Amino acid sequence: MFGLEKPAGRRAPGGSGGFPKMASVGDFNVLSSSIPATKVELSVSCRNLLDRDTFSKSDPICVLYTQAIGNKEWREFGRTEVIDNTLNPDFVRKFIMDYFFEERENLRFDFYDVDSKSPNLSKHDFLGQMFCTLGEIVGSQGSRLEKSIVGIPGKKCGTVIVTAEELGCCRDSVLMQFCANKLDKKDFFGKSDPFLVFHRSNEDGSFTICHKTEVIKNTLNPVWQAFKISVRALCNGDYDRTIKVEVYDWDRDGSHDFIGEFTTSYRELSRGQSQFNVYEVINPKKKGKKKKYVNSGTVTLLSFLIETEVSFLDYIKGGTQINFTVAIDFTASNGNPSQPTSLHYMNPYQLNAYGMALKAVGEIIQDYDSDKMFPALGFGARLPPDGRVSHEFALNGNPQNPYCHGIDGVMEAYYRSLKSVQLYGPTNFAPVINHVARYAASVKDGSQYFVLLIITDGVISDMAQTKESIVNASKLPMSIIIVGVGPAEFDAMEELDGDVVRISSRGKFAERDIVQFVPFRDYIDRSGNHVLSMARLAKDVLAEIPEQFLSYMRVRGIKPSPAPPPYTPPIHVLQTQI
Which positions fall inside the VWFA domain (predicted)? Predict the structure, then answer.
């Protein structure tokens, strides 16, 4: 995912908005009977939020929920960034969703005042919520929905503005760097602390924030770091669309001082460093008051580099293989496999939770692995004949060759192991992570990528070692999916999933976020429809893999191999005799 922009969230209702309808493709799977007509990007702003902080203003975040497939359960879709000290936030981080004309997608936007680093929303002050459908946003005039925030009885909670923009299919990104000269001095004791805010214009003439630079302290001649932004985010692929850039002086209390602004376009910027890309920063109020006013400084484009973004499928087309390894928790806390209460119970009529999670994820990943041979490991059991405890044993009983043929082969080996090993403990993850890391470390050329699925019932015993293993693995071509089964509290697992706070060990931070954790109970279909449960689980746990994969390739500068030419049968030329 791009940051928190999870490319999921299917379906949306009808609406008369300006997005084309696309024909259905027939019932080709349980999850969707049509391909998405388009992707839409949702931008969120609020006005007059509740103030929950005593000595300063609220520090708001927006959390988007969608309703799960086939029932009324709300699931978190993503979060914006936190903006400090404001009741009128314009969030930079967007939500990208598939939009289906003929289906209904219910949305819920929750707002919180963030008081600490905890990812747990119950630790923060609730500021209210807004319910709508994706079609309601798309179908509003200019695809811009303004609605009251509700949820706190007797309080006016302000309003939320959600704008939907259809995404162009532009895959270019630009790397740009700016500097400024002689900006207005705004601070009483020092110089200004300037930063830039970029906005793209919308079709109705309004503006949507798309990038903020960092703040450069105490200077009127800042040089900002180069930054990368997709052309889609900058101008939705429309090279002549106005881009407005505002210059501010940063203030600790959030009341940043406006220095001035200028406008440009992608086409102008693409000329690169030249006299055309030196912009006068104008403060309209000052200009109106002072006859001798010239400008509030200038901003200069130092560099402009276009990069075409490659996609996950470009690598797959070029032959990159995804290697899938599964590791199953055989600790005693799962319960005796012969008892129906056990998470490992072998019910002859249906899969247990381990089997469902394994099949759900494996059946999708196996399409990207040409030999369909998967190493299957177990941990936390006593092995025959001598009862030694192992945290890294082959389910098929062959440590030299732990590979099983296909997901069905893995399932078979799993059931066989349950009959031969003794469930024991403790719950150690580091050995199986290090096992896959050894393989991943030997192929760093982009030809292979490794995905480890760990299925576990509970509380991890070797947290420090696991964190260290994950930090080391973040440099390698691998991702880790952890599925928690059963009723245990999985708080520690949330810490391993670096979505909110990047994981660290001994002061070293993970180079990339490579862990995705989900509790299986969130996906269980209450009507007993296991196909639906498994489809939901797979969709969510695999959503982050392409972006994690791409982040590794980008950091290592690995480009996709050219796709092999499509096969064309040889042409037989019939020679005619003269």
Answer: 323-524
Residue identified by tokens 């490579």 is 514
Residues 447, 400, single domain; the answer is yes
159 and 188 fall within a common domain: no
Cβ proximity of 97 and 43 under 8 Å: no
Q: Which residues pair with 133 in a beta bridge?
A: 106
Please, where are the H alpha helices in 366-502?
406-420, 430-441, 463-473, 491-496
Reduced to 3 DSSP states, what percent helix, strand and coil does the chain have, rounded to the nearest 5?
20, 30, 45
In-domain check, residue 534:
yes
450, 544: one domain = yes
Q: What is the pLDDT of residues 158-183, one digit of tens each?
A: 999 999 887 755 668 899 999 999 99
Q: Once rounded to an integer, what is the mean pLDDT over residues 310-320?
A: 77
Q: Is 567 contained in some domain?
A: no
Domain for residue 261, yes or no? yes
Q: Are 353 and 340 in contact (CB under 8 A)?
A: no
Q: State how many domains the chain has.
A: 3
Residue 16 lies in a domain: no
Domain that includes residue 247, residue range: 172-308
* Cβ(425)–Cβ(380) below 8 Å: yes
- The percentage of the chain sitting over the pLDDT mark of 70, rounded to a whole number, equals 87
C-alpha to C-alpha distances, 474 to 134, 177, 508, nearest whole angstrom: 36, 29, 11
Give pLDDT, residue 354: 95
CA distances (Å), origin 568, targets 313, 562, 574: 22, 17, 18
Give the sheet arrangement for strand 207-212, strand by strand: 207-212, 194-201, 242-249, 257-265
pTM, entire model? 0.57
Mean pLDDT score of the chain:
85
Overall residue count recorded for the chain in this entry: 578
Residues 390 and 510 occupy one common structural domain: yes
Q: Is the same domain home to 378 and 412?
A: yes
Between the alpha carbon of residue 448 and those of residues 46, 258, 284, 324, 552, the distances in Å are 44, 50, 56, 11, 11
Place of tokens 């309080």: 155
Task: Let me know the angle formed at the C-alpha of 313 by 307 and 315, rounded to the nearest 5 degrees.
Answer: 70
CB 100 within 8 A of CB 12: yes
